[in-house]
Amino acid sequence: MSSERKRVRKAVLPVAGLGTRFLPATKAMPKEMLPVVDKPLIQYAVEECIASGIENVIFVTGRRKSAIEDHFDFAPELEHFLEDHGKPELAQMVRDISGGIHFSYTRQNEALGLGHAVLTARELVGDEPFAVLLGDVIMESPVPATRALIEIYEATGQGAITVQEVPREELQFYGVISSSPGKIARWGDSVLRLNDMVEKPKPDEAPSNLGVSGRYVLPPEIFDYLDQTKPGAGGEIQLTDGLRALAAKEGLWAHVHQGKTHDAGNKLGFLKATVELALKNPKFGSEFRRYLKTLEL
What is the pTM of this model? Predict the structure, then answer.
């Protein structure tokens, strides 16, 4: 890693969406605050940031998102209440939610796409490389997905995104990459040179079976490419278009995720994530598994 290369210290979490796929539950509650087992959906992404060495999380919010800010804020009254009532372990759990990192907030005033949401964070990110995490995707692996991308950036000085193998019939729901071998000995076949991306292709037109899965580490130059990106369908600025330009002119890597991905961005995926993570819970996972077996027909 070059001595002049800046560390990846910041992460952008776009959370301005209206959560319409979860109505009516999200009429008054942010989608990101829906509980998956015992903590809000967005907390999984923040915990990944903490485990990856991120120091500053930047939320790109919208209206009705104050619950997210409240969740990660200090709660001295609650902590004191728990301690006074003989529950110090719960008080410590409340303190640990923020993980000692700094949180910043900026408002996306209009829903103009993921690319626009990232661009909204430009002033807070500044001239630094940064991570982007989609909060409705929970990723499990021995090395956090974001940490793996940071390591690739540190080794190459170029951006990297996480991809995963996707069943061909589901490729129409993903951005799908075309790539060539990365030829970096440290990562072998798990790191590829990204050549191009196609957004939501028909299965028989997809260039591969590798779909983009909601984790990015990008150089600050991405802001210039997003600033030059023309709005597409619905007047939205697509992050995919900015990434394609970045890949063509600056270079971009794709890391094939080696763990489990939970897409909790729709009701069925959310339920699957809840069940699978509940089964892994050390306190009640075994009992929950026994219960599920009683439901088998």
Answer: 0.92
